Amino acid sequence: MSRLLSRRHLAAAAARRSAPLAWLHTPSFATVSPQEISGSSPAEVQNFVQGSWTASANWNWIVDPLNGEKFIKVAEVQGTEIEPFVESLSKCPKHGLHNPLKAPERYLMYGDISAKAAHMLGQPAVSDFFAKLIQRVSPKSYQQALAEVQVSQKFLENFCGDQVRFLARSFAVPGNHLGQRSNGYRWPYGPVAIITPFNFPLEIPLLQVMGALYMGNKPVLKVDSKVSVVMEQMLRLLHDCGLPAEDMDFINSDGITMNKLLLEANPKMTLFTGSSRVAEKLAADLNGRIKLEDAGFDWKILGPDVQEVDYIAWVCDQDAYACSGQKCSAQSVLFMHKNWSSSGLLEKMKKLSERRKLEDLTIGPVLTVTTEAMTEHMNNLLKIPGSKVLFGGEPLENHSIPKIYGALKPTAVFVPLEEILKSENFELVTKEIFGPFQVVTEYSEDQLELVLEACERMNAHLTAAVVSNDPLFLQDVLGRSVNGTTYAGIRARTTGAPQNHWFGPAGDPRGAGIGTPEAIKLVWSCHREIIYDIGPVPKNWALPSPT
Questions:
Q1: Is 222 helix (H, G, I), strand (E, B) or coil?
Q2: Domain Aldehyde dehydrogenase spans what residues (predicted)?
């Protein structure tokens, strides 16, 4: 009987695997079902402030990026409705909701919340729910969407138990006399704000929100309205896992209203992830009280040692075109040593790009750049002498993606290195196109200096890859570059923001990181020094002369 039962269980499991996760039910915390969201059954996204879910007088309709149908209603707060959010942040003191000398039990509480949330996200029904919800609003392959959920779950696992209080580890230095010592503490900012983009609807806001909360801050979170339903559902999960309702607020609004909120509420620190243009405006408006993870025109250099061509071609395809190129770490320019020219690399990259199709969302809608804008950029590049389309360059066919979004085949344009460096071309060539678009160029042994000059002149220094196992080549390039997250070696890539290493730019004192203890401490706390001097006063002390 037990053998028969075991066989039945195995057969049931096999049947479930053959129809991936179709058997799973909607989680108990959820108020939407990804499969059922449509024009006839729209999802509604609310705000959360001062411990309560609230609506707004204004509902903004979000259109389905695959067919243009109105399918999500977002309660967007207007400029006249921000007072509850201003009041909520004002209730949080500058010394935070907790710190090393106040309510330290809350560090343990957040370790417990992380453990419960990690357990929840690890359940197949929950991870599948979020992966499919991500796909509905920011179309990408199921594997890419699920990976975002898995990174988020691993992050929460990393900060279970005592790991939250370890973030606030302090130090002491002996003083000059008995009773004196100096203690260094990681201190919260108190009221803070977080603004995140559309491309990673779960991972970026969740990791930054939890980092802010771990360190004792009270955040107000704004996610791009096109995808905010994902984080709204995650907030409901966190409440189920014990997150105190008053510890954070969640707002949907346009940029003008959020800007007004920031100016009136005066958060002591704001984390912004998004475009460089908005980042620079906020930096000025907030008088520098900001951390940025903005644009990334990310480069990859293929060294002189040609090997593993099939693997390198696959990584290049993933780096440039996964998520339809809508990653701030996407491969924007490929500097290819001339030794690779006869390897067949470009032809392999072309064939790999042609495997991508709308049906499985390995290529899909581009949410911030239209087809016309990408085509115009390509045509401008083609005016540069020696430039040519290597592959792609045409709109996607047989689709219903609305015209407000982009729909372009994976595209690569070759531009000669000498032309890239010309002052009249450099800004054009290094313009970030947040879509399935990359520039490819070639260099010879004596042109490495030109490649490094190009890297030096770029303004965004987020990710980079140096693809080589030549230790002297690696040492030379790494020692003369700056990108904050740089992969090196024959398996190097530009994309990848897992929970196990720092992800963020370098070369800018405003640069923010994500995912690691170092990132959390840098972004969400400041240094405070307390010098204890309790005596005793020496018995033979006498009033000294004035100095």
A1: strand
A2: 62-487
Whether omega before 93 lies within 30 degrees of 0, making that bond cis, reads no
Question: Which residue type occupies 423?
Answer: S
Buried b (16+ CB within 10 A) or exposed e, 66-76: bebeebbbbbb
Is 370:408 a contact under the CB 8 Å cutoff? no
Residue 70 three-state SS: strand
385: tokens are 């002498």
Contact indicator for 423, 394 with CB cutoff of 8 Å: no
Q: How many CA atoms lie within 13 A of 379 on its CB side?
A: 7
- Residue 182's beta-bridge partner residues? 173, 531
State whether the Cα torsion 266-270-272-276 is positive or negative: positive
- The kind and range of the H/E element at 466 are strand 463-467
* pLDDT tens by residue, 474-484: 999 999 999 99
Catalytic positions, please?
A: 293, 328
For 393-425, write each residue's pLDDT tens digit: 999 999 999 999 999 999 999 999 999 999 999
Dihedral sign of CA atoms 19, 25, 29, 34 in order: positive
Write the CB contacts of 383 (distance below 8 Å, at least 6 apart in sequence): none
Cα separation values, 525 from 269, 464, 500, 541, Å: 9, 27, 20, 40
Kindly report, residue by residue over 267-297, the tens digit of the pLDDT.
999 999 998 889 999 999 999 999 999 777 9
Residue 105 CB contacts under 8 Å (≥ 6 apart), including other chains: none
Do residues 43 and 73 make contact, with C-beta atoms less than 8 angstroms apart?
Answer: yes
pLDDT at 23 over 90: no
Neighbour tally for 57: CB within 10 Å: 10
The confidence score (pLDDT) of residue 494 equals 96
Query: How many Cβ atoms are within 10 Å of 149's Cβ, its own excluded?
Result: 25
Q: Which of 43, 52, 22, 54 is closest to 233 using CA atoms? A: 43
CA separation for the pair 83, 77 (Å, rounded):
10
Which two structure tokens, joined as six digits, stand for 393? 């360059």
Tokens in use for 250?
């969640």
